[in-house]
Amino acid sequence: MGQLAPRSLSLSDQPAIVVERLAKIYAGRAVVQNVSFQVRPGEIFALLGPNGAGKTTTIEILEGYRRSDAGSVRVLGLDPQRQRHELYQRIGIMLQQGGFYPMAAPIETLRLFASFYDKPHDPTELLKLVGLEDAARTRYRRLSGGQKQRLSLAVALVGRPELVFLDEPTAGMDPQARHTTWGIIRSLKEHGVTVILTTHLLDEAERLADRVAIIDRGRLIALGTPSELTGAGTTSDLWLSGPPGLDRDSLLALTTVKNVRETGPGQYVFETDRTLDLLVELAEWLRARGILPRELRIGQGSLEEIFLRLTDRSISE
Q1: Are 34 and 300 within 8 A, CB to CB?
Q2: pTM to 2 decimals?
Q3: Which of 48, 58, 83, 303 is the least crowded, having the fewest Cβ atoms under 10 Å away?
Q4: In terms of domains, do 54 and 29 share one?
């Protein structure tokens, strides 16, 4: 199956991950509340949410780092707490901050982690795959942020995992390295590896993920393919570029407007289920006030726009 093939790959139709009514409480506050979802074998599944929304806690429970307070979790059919050793032989984990020995070179780090597995990937080939062959003997502390991320990705893949957790996989990377990493992630899917992706780059999730789950305030608020989330229902978006500070109350009073947001100075997004009628009504509203729009366009929202609409805040808040 090629270089990125896992050591063994189950052909079972059973889900790779099953989460049922998951809950976690810290200091009397529920940070994860009644979350349920499944991940199919061989799919790229993105778990998104603002900072503090509960996604990191959910991922850490799946990885076996934290215990849940209620509900159940199965990863590759295993209990992450009770069967942790068996699970760790079958998964790979890429952390945003690698935590590797600062004086060790990438080739040394990869050889160390390769020694933990029976049939690991060749460390030299992995370094070439992630574009670190020229830095193979550079000490970790001297690597750039993007190079450290690529080493973390290589470590996550060294054991030929069936399932890999990728946390902010392209953070700190230049555009070329980012596209190379996207190609690696797509190649994992082609080889049947299940990928759990967390990222603050919503265009990354939209390009890579087969399905996206959005968590906010500890609850699962959306789940579907990117096209389902950005084009669900009959609601369309209309974008207006004009002068900043238009009267939002007056705009909301238009009969065809379901909601309107000023996403930036002079940048407005209207939600409507009567697109043509809104065009007519908004044009009359603008003409009555002598306002000539710089841009007016219609379409479904991007994943980022849907995210902002659902959570009413930035993913980095």
Answers
A1: no
A2: 0.78
A3: 83
A4: yes
